[in-house]
Design brief:
alpha/beta; Rossmann fold; Rna Polymerase Sigma Factor, Chain: A; 8-stranded mixed sheet; two-stranded antiparallel sheet; 11 helices; 14 strands; 16% strand
Length: 362
């Protein structure tokens, strides 16, 4: 399946802060065919470091980040469904973000880019969906930060979402989750090449961004998966532990494909996200939802532990809403949502088929 990234530009978007960003572009990819009544659309939302390239092979030969789930016969079966994935607002892979040109100055936005929220990301996605003439999504699905967007869709546009699949996600960050993001941000800003964000067309803050990514990768894996993959093995030629070499490689690889300022803005949006808007209980806000839910978590995910998914499940059940929940056994940690595909595929396939039947009845 060959994948091509497209772009749409809109005149403006009003952010939750009240700032109007104009113009605004969104990069996206589509897979499958939109049916006649436009009822078979699934929006896939990406995690923090993802982009619009979710499936298939792009011009550079790179597979999409969820290629094992999107395609003919897969969980998100493109023989049946029309799947859309877009790069988030604030990103660096085609959608408007800090590295974009500010038309008012002719320079990159850099740190003058306005504060963005998960809600702002969803608003831009809604603008994209509307441009296709699609009034109701069969489903919105995503893991990690993608799951936050899924939840935001369900409460912000309840009539536009038939079903929601948040995976390995949360309704709000804990203090520990915020702390990890802050360490990563400080690593970037401590790099002298960051230059208060004005590093474009100069040497980027590669060392700081690499360290930030290394911190992230530690949280994505479990103790067991790291033990199995690396143990205490060392490289004979230099005595470096295998886990050290892996983290350094991942960090340097990330520098080549991600923008440091996008890292700052997107992680802050994640930290500020609170589905309950400061309230103790999620019940009132989730009462607005008219959506069927499939919520999935993983036993070894200590970054987004299962108790955070169960908080959402409990709030939905208190309102007798349609929610299925499963905790899958895995040793992969948070990364399980990207690599543990077999059980997820069966769950997603069945859930979408039932949702499609329900939609057809109405």
């Amino acid at each position: 399946m060959v994948a091509t990234t497209h772009s749409k530009q809109f005149e403006s978007i009003e952010l939750e802060s009240g700032v109007v960003l104009s113009p605004v572009s969104v990069a996206y990819e589509t897979y499958g065919t939109l049916n006649a009544d436009k009822s078979n659309t699934i929006l896939v939302t990406h995690a923090f470091s993802g982009d619009a390239h979710a499936a298939g092979v792009d011009a550079e030969g790179q597979k999409g980040w969820w290629d094992n789930q999107i395609g003919p016969g897969k969980g998100f079966d493109t023989d049946k469904y029309f799947v859309i994935c877009s790069n988030v607002l604030g990103g660096c892979k085609g959608s408007t973000g800090p590295s974009s040109i500010n038309p008012a100055t002719g320079e990159r936005y850099a740190m003058t880019f306005p504060v963005i929220t998960i809600g702002d990301m969803v608003t831009l996605q809604k603008m994209l969906i509307d441009s296709f003439g699609i009034t109701r999504l069969l489903s919105v699905a995503g893991g990690s930060m993608g799951g936050m967007q899924v939840l935001e869709w369900a409460v912000r546009f309840p009539e536009a979402v038939a079903s929601a699949i948040p995976i390995a996600s949360t309704a709000r960050h804990s203090a520990q989750q915020i702390a990890f993001n802050e360490v990563a941000r400080q690593a970037i800003m401590a790099d002298p090449d960051w230059a208060d964000g004005n590093y474009y067309d100069k040497k980027p803050p590669g060392r700081g961004l690499a360290v930030a990514r290394m911190v992230g990768h530690i949280t994505y894996m479990s103790d067991e998966s790291m033990r199995q993959k690396f143990g205490r093995r060392q490289r004979e030629e230099n005595g470096i532990f295998e886990v050290e070499s892996y983290l350094r490689y991942r960090g340097s690889q990330f520098v080549d494909r991600f923008d440091a300022n996008s890292y700052l803005f997107i992680t802050k949006a994640m930290d500020m996200f609170d589905l309950a808007n400061g309230a103790q209980s999620l019940v009132p806000v989730l009462a607005k939802s008219r959506t069927r839910y499939l919520i999935i978590s993983f036993t070894s995910d200590w970054l987004y532990p299962s108790y955070q998914s169960l908080e959402i499940v409990s709030a939905l059940r208190r309102r007798n809403q349609d929610v299925a929940y499963i905790e899958l056994t895995s040793n992969y940690g948070h990364d399980a949502f990207l690599v543990e595909v077999d059980e997820q595929t069966e769950l997603i396939r069945g859930f979408l088929a039932r949702t499609m039947k329900e939609v057809a009845k109405k």
